[in-house]
Amino acid sequence: AMPRLDPKDFMFSKQKGLTLMKSPGQVNGQQFIIEDLDDCEVVVADHTCQVTVDVCNRSKMFIGPCDGSVFLRDCEDCEFTV
User: Fold this and answer.
1) The whole model's pTM is what?
2) What are the pLDDT digits (tens) for 8-41?
């Protein structure tokens, strides 16, 4: 049987002042959620099917290849590389 996926493995949530990274093979085409980050650097260096970014402030984000859409909502003073 396939191991069950833990949704917490596919999100960065409620963090401040951190560098957050997913390496190749860690997301493996799943949806990824980024929410409630302040002053963070984010690297998603793996392929995803969809990414949502909500309520982030003063953060830099690099989002790797995505099969579907990348949604950016309610973010302020952020820099995105998609």
Assistant:
1) 0.93
2) 999 999 999 999 999 999 999 999 999 999 999 9
Token pair, residue 64, equals 């790797």
C-alpha span between 3 and 32 (Å, rounded)? 18
Rounded to 5 degrees, what are φ and ψ at 42?
-120, 130
26 within 8 A of 43, measured Cβ to Cβ? no
CA separation for the pair 45, 33 (Å, rounded):
14
Q: What is the enclosing helix (H) or strand (E) of 37?
A: strand 32-38
Give the integer Cα–Cα distance in Å for 27 and 46.
Answer: 6
Q: Which residue matches tokens 């999100």?
A: 11
Angle CA 73–22–16, to nearest 5: 55
